[in-house]
Specification:
The protein contains 26 helices and ten strands. It folds into three domains: about 45-290, no CATH class; about 290-390, no CATH class; about 400-580, Rossmann fold. With about 725 residues, the chain is α/β, with parallel strands linked by helices. About 55% of the residues lie in helices and about 10% in strands. The model is unreliable at about 1-25, about 600-610 and about 705-720 (pLDDT under 50). Strand 9, helix 24 (about 645-660) and strand 10 form a beta-alpha-beta unit. The strands form three sheets. The protein has a five-stranded parallel beta sheet with strand order 5-4-3-6-7, sandwiched between helices. It has a three-stranded parallel beta sheet with strand order 8-9-10. Belongs to the SLC12A transporter family.
């Protein structure tokens, strides 16, 4: 019994010891694998540190290093090509240890030298399993891996700022380098297919080192080629990052990266940041996994470059004159479509993510970047399309069914007229909107200098206030002459003003109302900084308001402007008291009151009530109510005057039928001509009748959006306008 127990204990102990030894051995393998991983990454980090020294400190070090690297790569390639001809006898190569597809036995792989049978066997073969990934690679996967070998095509363009003659050096150097690289790849593939059997090519990826006369030269060549590509990408990426930082396209947080040092403005900070990104990528275990992702961004950059060339060619920009003789918009279009198609074919998910990242960066640049002095290609495209369609817009074929207000608003100073400018922006309804201004001065160099300065501030105002309008400023000896020029010359082709709006003539001191509309707008986070900068420039640079008692326009000129507008067949609208309009205060349901002030005059003469002025007032009120802001807060209310109860019923029914026929949503409100007034009735159409009508407006409005006041001036303008 005791021996049995002792034997059992010995077996149990040996089992424990054997298990402990196996676990210890497994743990040792894990430790060794981890140490091998860490040591490999540390060794990979060392060249990156050397890159910093080459790219930054000694002037010209990058060019010298690149030359010696090229010399070493050429020596390595020459040794590989020579080895194909030296090894004429057959010999076998062992399968590498990492190739586990063959199981436990270790067959040998045959190198035949130049052999016609070997070439035929390699010519028509199907892809097999990759022993590193365990998957059958497709042509697109092979493209994604191989494509990284030709990404240096943009290396010359990335350092164009350091080249003496980039217009000559970049295309010539790029084409020569691409042709040389293609020839080397083609010769290597051809020689390998003629000398190496398929099992050797499939199961031993280091066959060039094995068949080389001096195997270490292949290792040196691979190392130098990798070093060259890394240096090229690092210096190119740092230069691009420095340029982006100097342009302040992504905000102030990367502006410091644009700082350069030394005579050549070396991008020290940009190189350090780019190097840190490289070192982060080193921790990826399999480079083939990373290669398709890198290929996506390269393809995206090439596709966008082709897109830019195509757009410039299509827009017929006269200053885009490429010197490459074989360039055309068709080649640019094919290149763009090919890049995007290959992206989707290689990996649709990676393509979608890379395009999404590009769109995000594009939006950030559009909304966050400050105003820049260089040109925008979209302006060239828009100009080309607008010109083409303006030529097709014939003013003689414009029908009344498609009439829309094309407004010329005469503005003396946007500081005091902003509420009116914003209001007219609502009633234009996708029509032409021009802000007209007159500089009263002699036509000389000083006046033109003032005009050039002020027109920029006007456009900044339009942009900051988000007004969809053009600005037209005239230098003239008087306001009336300037307005005549605006009436005759504003617009282009079929887009010319058909309606003139001007403020009411009075002696009141103007107020600075611009802060009520521009400053209190709710801008999004991307536009806020840019709009605040514009707002500051507007407040500083826009013309000052006239002082109390100053009057740059006479009553006769004012009436003459109205006369000139009517002679040219323009609709004339006179705006008053818009300084009291604040759209932010319109929160409860209100009304847009429509007073056809000449309806009774027309009806009294027997011509009916629907004249052109009546219809214009209804049309403008309907257009205003179509705007989402006014539609949600106001209703149209058609006002009319009645003499008695019977007249009220008839008038109300008639106006309801009119609104129904014109498809204008609104309600009818009848006002008795004796409401709150004396019993004396003036003659229709006289001055007294219009004064009587003004009194009816004042006592009849309820929940109005605008106030109507009788003019305190005793001039004819106050009575008749």
């Amino acid at each position: 019994m005791v021996p049995a127990i002792s034997k059992y204990a010995d077996n149990k102990t040996s089992a424990y010891l054997r298990g402990t030894w196996l676990k210890t051995k497994k743990f040792q393998k894990i430790i060794l694998a981890y140490l091998r991983y860490v040591s490999t990454r540390i060794i990979a980090h060392l060249p990156t540190c050397a890159y910093y020294f080459v790219c930054v400190f000694p002037p010209g070090m990058f060019a010298k290093t690149t030359f010696f690297i090229l010399l070493g790569v050429i020596i390595s390639l020459c040794s590989s090509f020579v080895s194909f001809f030296i090894h004429k006898k057959k010999y076998f190569s062992e399968i590498p240890a990492e190739n586990t597809l063959f199981g436990n036995h270790t067959p040998h792989l045959l190198y035949t030298g130049f052999n016609w049978t070997t070439f035929k066997d390699n010519l028509w073969t199907e892809p097999t399993v990759d022993y590193q990934t365990g998957e059958v690679p497709t042509i697109l996967i092979i493209f994604g891996v191989l494509f990284n070998g030709v990404t240096g095509i943009m290396a010359g363009a990335n350092i164009s700022g350091d080249l003496k003659d980039p217009a000559k050096s970049i295309p010539r150097g790029t084409l020569e380098a691409s042709g040389f690289t293609f020839l080397i790849y083609l010769l290597l593939v051809f020689f390998a297919s003629c000398t190496c059997t398929r099992p050797l090519l499939v199961n031993q990826y280091n066959f060039l080192q094995i068949i080389n006369v001096v195997p270490v030269l292949t290792t040196i060549g691979v190392f130098l080629a990798t070093l060259s590509a890394s240096l090229s990408c690092l210096i190119g990426a740092s230069r691009i990052l420095q340029a982006v930082a100097n342009d302040n396209l992504l905000g102030s947080f990367i502006t410091r990266l644009g700082r350069g040092f030394g005579r050549n403005n070396e991008p020290v900070f940009a190189v350090l940041v780019s190097g840190l990104c490289v070192q982060a990528v080193i921790f990826v275990s399999k480079v083939n996994t990373l290669a398709p992702i890198v290929s996506m961004f390269f393809l995206l950059s090439y596709g966008v470059t082709n897109l830019a060339c195509f757009v410039l060619k299509v827009s017929s920009a006269p200053n885009f004159r490429p010197t490459f003789p074989y360039y055309s918009k068709l080649t640019a279009l094919i290149g763009m479509l090919s890049c995007f198609a290959i992206m989707i074919a290689v990996n649709a998910l990676y393509a979608f993510v890379s395009v999404a990242i590009m769109i995000i960066l594009f939006l950030v640049i559009v909304y966050r970047a400050p105003i820049t002095p260089w040109g925008d290609v979209t302006q060239a495209v828009i100009y080309h399309q607008v010109r083409k369609y303006l030529l097709r817009l014939d003013p003689r074929q414009i029908h009344v069914k498609y009439w829309r207000p094309q407004i010329l608003l005469l503005v003396s100073n946007p500081r005091s007229c902003y509420p009116l400018i914003d209001f007219v922006n609502d009633i234009k309804k996708s029509g032409l909107y021009i802000l007209g201004n007159v500089i009263v001065d002699r036509f000389d160099g000083q006046a033109i200098t003032r005009h050039n300065q002020e027109i920029d501030h006007w456009y900044n105002f339009v942009r900051c206030a988000e007004i969809k309008a053009f600005v037209d400023q005239i230098v003239a000896p008087s306001i009336r002459v300037g307005v005549q020029n605006l009436l005759m010359s504003s617009g282009l082709g079929g887009m010319r003003p058909n309606t003139v709006i001007l403020g009411y003539f009075d002696q009141q001191e103007p107020q600075d109302l611009i802060s009520q509309g521009v400053w209190h707008r709710a801008y999004n986070i991307f536009e806020r900084r840019k709009k605040e900068q514009l707002h500051h420039e507007i407040m500083v640079n826009l013309p000052k308001l006239r002082e109390k008692g100053e009057q740059s326009m006479r009553v006769a000129d004012y009436v003459g402007v109205i006369k000139d507008s009517m002679l040219l067949g323009k609709n004339v609208c006179i705006a008053r008291n818009f300084s009291s309009l604040n759209k932010n205060n319109i929160k409860e349901p209100a009304f847009i009151d429509v007073w056809p002030v000449n309806a009774k005059s027309i009806e009294h003469s027997g011509e009916g009530i629907c004249d052109h002025t009546y219809l214009l007032i209804l049309q403008l009120s309907c257009i205003l109510n179509m705007v989402s802001f006014w539609e949600s807060r106001t209703k149209i209310r058609l006002m009319s005057i009645a003499h008695g109860d019977e007249s009220e019923v008839l008038e109300k029914n008639r106006l309801k039928c009119l609104l129904h026929e014109l498809r204008i949503p609104g309600e009818v409100h009848i006002v008795h001509d004796t409401d709150g007034l004396s019993s004396e009735q003036p003659t229709v159409g006289t001055t007294e009748w219009y004064e009587h009508l003004n009194q009816l407006m004042r006592v009849s409005l309820w929940k109005r959006c605008c106030n109507f006041h009788k003019s305190t001036s005793s001039s004819r303008t106050g009575k008749f306008i």
